[in-house]
Structure formats: structure tokens, C-alpha cells
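It is worth pausing here to work through a concrete case rather than discussing structure prediction in the abstract. The textbook approach is simple: state the sequence, then state the predicted structure, then interpret. We follow exactly that order.
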Amino acid sequence: MSVQEHEVASLIRAQSLTASPQIRAGAVICSHAGEHALTWTALGLLGGLLDPGQRRPWLRATATVVGAHGLSIVLKRVVRRHRPADPRIQVLVATPSHWSFPSAHAASTTAAAVAYSGLLRARWPLCSVPVMMASRVILGVHYPSDVLSGAALGAALGRWVAPVRGVSGS
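Step two, the predicted structure:
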């Protein structure tokens, strides 16, 4: 079995395990919340507004989120991997392009979770990562490797550009 066949099988299995209307409705909500990194960008800007002593780090973290989203879009256009198209896969939301690798949702969500958890000095934002990643597979718009790669990209940028240790006004 090829890697592609394993990914299709994993995606079909994930969809069969999450076929309830409530789970799918939650996945759609997650999808809309992560569109174009707008929710994560708004949260970062709100953090800068509500935490004036850490405004610069919040803005840097927010720029990291936007950068992770933008970089993933550029990579999609370079890699040009088509979204899942197997007839057994249900596609449950519209997408802005035909390209899937890496997942921009996973990249921006993970960048936000990593960068914002450093500023908040709390790990709970990291809980958003597996939820967002699962939603993209449940909705049939990404292969598992798309979301894993997007998350890795977001984590790297979240740690490198807006490091957890570097939250003091620098």
C-alpha cells in the first residue's frame, strides 16, 4: 500500500469514526473560526490591547500567526498537492483553493497556540491544535500529512519568531 493509499484510508477511517452530526457541526465551526487566520489574528490584537505592558510581544506573536498562514499559502502554490479527491471521502466545506499541502489552518492555529501560550504563561491554548487538525481531516479537505506538516510549520515559527522566553518588551 502506498503512502497516498494509507492517507486516504486514514481519512476515510477518521470520517467514519466522526460521522455524528454534532462532531461534524463542531468541525465546521472550527473551520470557519480558522479561516485566513482571522480569529487568531483578532485574539492576538486583543491581547496587545488588553495587555499594554506586553503590547510589542503580542504584536510580534500576531505577526507570527499571519506569517505562518502566509508561508503555508506560498508553500501550497509551490508544492501543488491536490486536496483529497477519492469518491469515498466526503468533502463537507468549501475551500479557497485546490491545494492542500500544508494546511494553513493547522499552521496558523499552532503558531497562535505556541506564541500566545508563551505570552499567557499557560499551556491551555495548545489544546486548540489537535482540535483544529482533526477538523480538517473530518471535513475531508486535508490529508493527515497536510495537517501534521502545517502544525510543524506553525510550531517552528511560533517558537522561533515569537519565542516563549522572549515575552519581555524586546
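Step three, interpretation. The first helix runs from residue 3 to 17. Residues 75 and 153 are 11 Å apart (CA to CA).
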